[in-house]
Design brief:
Number of strands: 25
CATH topology of the largest domain: Immunoglobulin-like
Radius of gyration: 21 Å
Strand content: over 45%
CATH class of the largest domain: Mainly Beta
Helix content: under 10%
Mean pLDDT: 74
Oligomer: single chain
Number of domains: 2
CATH architecture of the largest domain: Sandwich
Structural class: mainly beta
Largest sheet: 7 strands, mixed
Strand order of the largest sheet: 13-2-24-25-17-16-20
Low-confidence stretches: 13-26, 144-201
Number of helices: 1
Length: 330
Amino acid sequence: MKLGIVLAVTIIGFCLFSPSILLAEKTNPVEIVSINHAKISADQETISFKLGAPVPVTMFAIKGERPRLVIDFPESIYRKKNLIPLPEGELAENIRIGLHKEPKSKARIVIDLSKNYAVDYKHSFTESENLLEVVLTRGAIAEKTVNIPQETEKAPVSNDVLPVKDEKTVISPGVDTNTIAPAVAATEEVKDAPPVVSEDNPSPAVQEISPGMPQLLEVSFDDSSNRGEMVLFHLNDFFPPTVSAIEKNNPRVLCDFPSMKLSSDVQKQIDAGGKYVESVRTAYHADKDMVRVVLDLSPDRDYDLQQVFFKNDNLFVLIVNELPSEKDAQ
């Protein structure tokens, strides 16, 4: 078996597709039919959720440097994109949707709130319409504590589509490991192999997260697109990973994010069950101060990987496809 890696890395200033969330494998889950945001005034906004049936939601707010409102819908699914930017919102900035299977199946909605104001909330449910409405109200001005990274610390990026690399590397049978160049080359040091860390036995996950630190906020899987099976990484800034491949009995792709912290919202294990991607595992390695995401791939296939970064959404996407056989390529 060969594992082909296409290092086609594209940086995009706007989203060209709508990645959807992996659907729950259960009988008759409740569907979240639609999510709508409305700005009522400078001091009030609403977010409404149209449901297929009533569900007992759980709602709580998280304060701090990254304030957010979390809503859990038990035994529920959402079939559309898992990131909804709110460019017109002043109290709410984004809506993120994730699917959690453990300990119980649920759809988790995370509303990223304004860092400039304290935001109060209340909610109501209209039973005749199966409509949950969340009302956000502006509070006092919040104290600024977030340190914004300097522009000089970023790789220079244009808002246009930039093809960074376009070459193909094939890992020959019998080779255990091979390091693939990072998504964006920054210094000569990136030529070295990734840190030797066991993805199965990560270091104790002790994290000290300070304002402005790079964070992996969410990982999700999507197999609904005709572009291929996608693993989506939502970050808090432009931090592309180093991608490498392991070819043994169980082929894997490793995405290493150096000097990265892991948000508590990230699902550590995703049982993807895709044609190509069997599972996605995420762990923080304290001894290397890095986050590693492992894609367990189906064996006996030749794979083709594409990397895309949606700059405005801080969204890195790994697209997995199968390479055509030599016979088909002729």
